[in-house]
Design a protein that fits this description.
The chain is about 40% helix and about 20% strand. It is of the alpha+beta class.
Length: about 140
């Protein structure tokens, strides 16, 4: 399978976001009931983010047909990079904004996503704080 970017760089990005998450008590409080694995698919590349009570405890690169996930966000590296800009353009500012403009798709148990929407959206937005000097390249 073709890799669209450097796995080590993307794993570093997710790790930095997990570290940023630990520094935000309000976000940990929002996620205290969220213990799920989420699939983030960027083009052909897959990452399984495992959360335990709001903490990011593991990031596993895929693809894997054996790793169960609750819901998936499927997009492309360019759209995620635009989402992670300090001030994103319209449509790239929100998970469902990406869906609305046709740059992302959400699959799986949508109810779990909606129940934890603020936590998940704010977690993904942490990538804006960790973007300095890092790009997701195609």
């Amino acid at each position: 399978m073709t890799q669209t970017r450097d796995d080590a760089g993307m794993l570093d990005k997710w790790t930095a976001m997990g570290t940023a998450l630990e520094a935000r008590a309000h976000l940990l409080r929002l996620g205290r009931l969220f213990s799920e694995t989420v699939l983030i698919q960027l083009g052909e590349d897959e990452y399984y983010l495992t959360f335990e009570k709001g903490h990011l405890v593991d990031v596993t690169p895929g693809p894997s047909r054996k790793t169960p996930w609750r819901f998936a966000l499927r997009t492309d590296a360019e759209a995620l990079e635009a989402f992670w800009q300090p001030i994103p353009e319209a449509g790239f500012h929100d998970v469902f904004g990406l869906v609305k403009i046709g740059r992302a798709r959400v699959d799986g148990d949508i109810l779990v996503l909606v129940k934890n929407l603020r936590f998940f959206k704010e977690f993904l937005a942490l990538g804006r704080d960790t973007t300095s000097g890092m790009e997701v390249s195609a």
